[in-house]
Structures are given as C-alpha cells and as structure tokens.
Amino acid sequence: MDAKARNCLLQHREALERDIKTSYIMDHMISNGVLTVSEEEKVKNEPTQRQRAAMLIKTILEKDNYSYISFYNALLHEGYKDLAYLLHGGIPVISSSNGKDSVGITSYVRTVLCEGGVPQRPVVFVTRKKLVNAIQQKLFKLSGEPGWVTIYGMAGCGKSVLAAEAVRDHSVLEGKF
Ligand SMILES: Nc1ncnc2c1ncn2[C@@H]1O[C@H](COP(=O)(O)OP(=O)(O)OP(=O)(O)O)[C@@H](O)[C@H]1O
Ligand SMILES: [Mg+2]
C-alpha cells in the first residue's frame, strides 16, 4: 500500500488495537475479497481481543491500497466512525485511468464499488448480458439528471446481483455516480 496509507495505519495503530473487535470487520473485508479465510483464522486464533486486533492490523499492513480502503469502510459500517475518521487522511487516491484487472474491471471501478459497499460477483456467476445492458441503458438515459432505475422481481431472483453488475462498469460509474 502507499506510504501515506501505511503511515496513517502505523500512527493510529495503538487506538485501533485497543478498540476494535475484529470479527465483523473481517467479514466485511472477506466479502470485499481483500482478506482470506486463512488470514481470518490466524487472527481468530489469538487469545485476546487486543491481540486479535494487533494481528489484523499487522496483516493489513502487508497488503495493498484496496485493503486499506476496505478496512476503512468496515470501520465506518461497523460502528467505529471515530476510528475511521482517523484513517480518512490516509485513503490512497486511485486514478481512474489505471489499467484493467484479470476480469476486465479497472482499479477505479474496484475502488468506487469497494467504497460503496457493492458486493462482489458470486463465485459461480451466470452473466445476464441482456438484462445488464438494459439497466445500463436506463442509467445512461438519465443523462446527468438525478433519478432512479427500478429493478423488480421475485425474492431471491437475482436483483441485487444484477444491479451490482450493471454498475461494475467504468463508463457507467464515471458518468452517472
Ligand atoms: N447472475 C448470477 N449468477 C450466479 N448466482 C446468482 C446470480 N444472481 C443471483 N445469484 C445467486 O442468487 C442469490 C440471490 O441473489 P440476489 O441477492 O441478487 O437476489 P435478490 O433478488 O436481490 O433477492 P432479495 O429479493 O432477497 O433482495 C445470490 O446470493 C447468488 O448466490
Ligand atoms: Mg436484493
């Protein structure tokens, strides 16, 4: 991760280690794809809350910018607003012109979706191109005006996964959000 982010973590390490309970924070980071289950296990094996927090911070320090952003968001969403605020100044800036990763997602898209808490694709993922395109067209039709696109359907039919997929796109995000 960037030196600025790293320094910010190191500077506030003491407060973070003293106050955070790791389990919900790790759930959040695992769903963002920045922490592995075996890393989670390693943290959980520590005997005290403080040692678990220390192990999590140590693990994050060895990771990338996305992990920092995911940790920051986890703090924000899990009731540690004050601690998240301490880390705000260290949030790395990720340029929107960066290249694409292995699934064709730019780092800008990854960062924005990560910051917004948009879930990742299911591990086994069925593309629904026609529907995704239809939603993206509706978003483009808003042409800069505030508005909504409504996705409706039976419980569990895949609405949220579809909505997440529609915004997993550089031009949609840059132009509409
Ligand atoms: N395109 C897809 N490919 C693979 N699995 C999918 C896909 N869409 C949905 N699923 C599976 O179905 C589950 C439910 O999908 P999702 O949460 O999007 O439904 P929903 O319509 O938003 O449900 P709810 O009405 O409860 O909000 C997902 O967790 C995922 O496991
Ligand atoms: Mg849903």
TrEMBL record:
Q: Which GO terms describe its molecular function?
A: ADP binding
A single GO cellular-component term on record: cytosol
Q: Which GO terms describe its biological process?
A: apoptotic process; regulation of apoptotic process
**Top-level taxon in the UniProt lineage:** Eukaryota
Instruction: Give all residue intervals belonging to the CARD domain.
Output: 1-90
Q: Which PANTHER family match?
A: APOPTOTIC PROTEASE-ACTIVATING FACTOR 1 (PTHR22845:SF5)
Kindly provide the name given to this protein in its UniProt entry: CARD domain-containing protein
